[in-house]
Design goal:
Layout: H1 2-20, H2 27-55, E1 71-81, E2 84-94, H3 112-123, H4 128-139, H5 145-152, H6 156-164, E3 171-183, E4 190-201, E5 206-214, H7 219-231, E6 241-244, H8 248-257, E7 262-265, H9 267-274, H10 280-294, H11 299-313, H12 318-326, H13 328-331, H14 341-351, H15 355-368, H16 377-395
Parallel strand pairs: 3-6, 6-7
Antiparallel strand pairs: 1-2, 3-4, 4-5
Helix pairs in contact: 1-2, 3-4, 7-8, 9-12, 10-11, 11-12, 15-16
Length: 407
């Protein structure tokens, strides 16, 4: 024991000798170089000590016929660390090949904290292509794109945990929508849909709750998505309203899973559909008249305003008027929720459209645009999870205090 202690004490003394060699004037310039030397020396000394413990003999010591193994020289390994790349680390080798150092795993070429750093940068919104360039000044080396992809695969367990986590039944407004992206297929790229649920809790917290990959916004896909939310804890006891863009799949699924929740149709999507029946010169004045409907103070006032619009526009564009009239109950649902006067304008603006979730989709498009096409479904899940994780972290400290008035 004393011999081991003295050996380690001697080796730590060598580390201190390195420190004494540093010129104070150039400390911050050469600090990483010195740290790499110190780290390399410490790793090699630790490996030698581990080999001694494994062999149970000192170097060149004869142990008779009962020895476990024999030394067989060493091999060199490079290691990327947070101090920069450390080259040609001498790793001792045993003849039977049974010696396993604890400093790094077999075939491991990067310090664990480097992998963690890559994942954290990826989660903060940096694209896979830009991670290597972003970290090069910090790590002093470039990690290949394939290397970064292998590192980010570690997030698969976090993605699985995100999909399976229990949900608190504290959401008062739920926004449902989907975004289409391209994924490589066997022969060519194909479009898939990411179904997304976004919620605002009774405490005013915004949260991207869940997502799933579907081939289409079908009844089965949407019902399965909402059923999963329900089974994980979002039973809808506090739900005041669910907002959608008018997808038939989500509308039918809401009637099955959350039949008692009020349903709000998105005004932006509805007007986009209605104006398809208008001449170009009529689009702007039609939208101005429609604006008076959703800006009305009460439900009764909104209905009266729509009747004025219908009387004026029916002879000009009956299809556009019929498009609005067909879903007027769902378009005016947001006016039926009692809201304190001082918060009324802000809250109604937030819940009458799906714009609040569409803003999150901008980030998805920003990340996916340079890629053009995702490699597979797993890469899609990792990217979407990374975006959700970053946005949810950012919103954690920025609740919408106006929505707490319902508590």
């Amino acid at each position: 024991m004393n011999q081991t202690y003295n050996t380690l004490k001697h080796r730590w003394g060598r580390v201190k000798d390195f420190v004494n060699q540093i010129d104070p004037k150039d400390f911050w310039i050469d600090v990483n170089s010195y740290l790499r030397k110190l780290t390399k020396s410490l790793i090699e000394d630790t490996l030698d000590e581990e080999m001694i413990q494994y062999m149970r003999t000192q170097p060149y010591q004869r142990a008779g016929e009962n020895r476990l193994d024999y030394r067989n020289g060493h091999y060199c390994r490079n290691l990327d660390t947070t101090f920069g790349p450390i080259e040609r680390i001498a790793v001792p080798r045993s003849r039977r090949g049974l010696f396993r150092p604890s400093v790094f795993a077999r075939y491991h070429r990067r310090q664990q904290t480097v992998d963690d750093l890559v994942c954290n940068v990826f989660l903060r919104g940096i694209s896979t292509r830009d991670v290597a360039e972003t970290l090069k000044p910090v790590l002093g080396t470039t990690i290949s794109a394939s290397g970064i992809s292998r590192i980010t695969k570690r997030l698969d367990s976090s993605v699985k945990e995100f999909h399976q986590r229990k949900l608190l039944d504290e959401y008062q407004f739920l926004f449902l929508d989907g975004i289409a992206i391209s994924v490589k297929g066997s022969l060519k790229a194909k479009k898939i849909l990411i179904l997304v649920a976004y919620g605002i809790t009774v405490f005013g917290k915004k949260e991207l709750i869940a997502f799933t990959i579907a081939n289409a916004e079908s009844n089965a896909a949407c019902e399965g998505f909402l059923n999963d939310l329900f089974k994980r804890g979002l039973e809808g006891r506090n739900l005041k309203m669910i907002v959608t863009d008018g997808s038939k799949g989500f509308i039918n699924a809401i009637e099955i899973v959350y039949p008692h929740a009020k349903h709000q149709r998105c005004w932006v999507h509805k007007l986009r559909n209605a104006t398809k029946y208008l001449k170009k010169d009529d689009i702007k004045p039609f939208k101005l008249d429609a604006r008076n409907i959703y800006n009305a103070s009460t439900h009764r006032e909104a209905v009266a305003t729509f009747k004025i619009l219908r009387k004026h526009w029916y002879t000009v564009a009956p299809e556009a008027v019929a498009c609005l009239e067909r879903d007027m109950d769902e378009l005016l649902a947001f006016l039926t929720i009692p809201i304190k006067e001082q918060f009324r304008v802000f809250i109604r603006r937030q819940i009458r459209t799906t714009n609040i979730i569409e803003r999150s989709f901008r980030e998805v498009r920003r990340r996916s645009r340079p890629m053009g096409c995702f490699t597979n479904y797993d890469s899609v899940s990792r990217i979407i999870y990374a975006i959700f994780n970053r946005l949810n972290s950012k919103w954690e400290e920025k609740p919408l205090k106006e929505f707490t008035q319902f508590i």
